[in-house]
Amino acid sequence: MAALFYILAAISVISALTVVGARNPVNSVIALVVCFLSIAGHYVLLNAQFLAMVHVIVYTGAIMVLFLFVIMLLNLNKPGGPRKSLAMRLAAAVAGGLLFLTLAAAVRQGVAITPAAGFDPGVGLVRHVGQVLFTEFLLPFEVSSVLFLSAIVGVVMLAKKDKDEAPDPHITGPERARRTA
User: Fold this and answer.
1) What is the spatial distance between Cα 4 and Cα 23, in angstroms, rounded to a whole number?
2) For residue 8, what are the contacts with CB-CB under 8 A and spacing of at least 6?
3) Whole-angstrom distance, CA of residue 71 vs CA of residue 23
4) Per residue, what are the HEC states of the chain?
5) What is the pLDDT of residues 99-145, one digit of tens each?
6) Which of 24, 40, 41, 42 satisfies CB 3.0 to 4.6 Å to 52 for a cystine?
């Protein structure tokens, strides 16, 4: 078990570094899929098979397909991308330095290691997750479903194109200006 944990941890770290360091966005998305799959492997090692499958279906399946569509629609593979200004580079360097200082201070403070709690074999199984979700966390579950529904309605309304708003491509010149006014 320990060897498998270290193998999955190495895969997670290497693929996460590849996500950040890849120049091609498609390669970055593929490395992120590998990272998500290795994290799902960690969930299986923690006896949370349901969480692992949901992670694979939602993140590796749906979210990565969405990322690939966005990359393809925005055509981010163009070789001559936008140049970053000096102010943006300076802001990025300052933010990175502040993050490094925060991490260094956290490491210097030390980590308090607490003993592990008792092992519950029911944690992570579908029955236990469903029972907790529909008893203890029913209100947050319902609120999140309403939030997702409103997000879906908002996306549909934004993406919907009215036929009246679209200009006719065959009408040009002063006729188009008169019709749009």
Assistant:
1) 30
2) 38, 41, 42, 45
3) 13
4) CHHHHHHHHHHHHHHHHHHHHCCCHHHHHHHHHHHHHHHHHHHHHCCCHHHHHHHHHHHHHHHHHHHHHHHHHHCCCCCCCCCCCHHHHHHHHHHHHHHHHHHHHHHHHCCCCCCCCCCCCCCCCHHHHHHHHHHCCHHHHHHHHHHHHHHHHHHHHHHCCCCCCCCCCCCCCHHHHHHHC
5) 999 989 888 887 777 777 777 776 667 788 788 888 998 998 898 88
6) 40
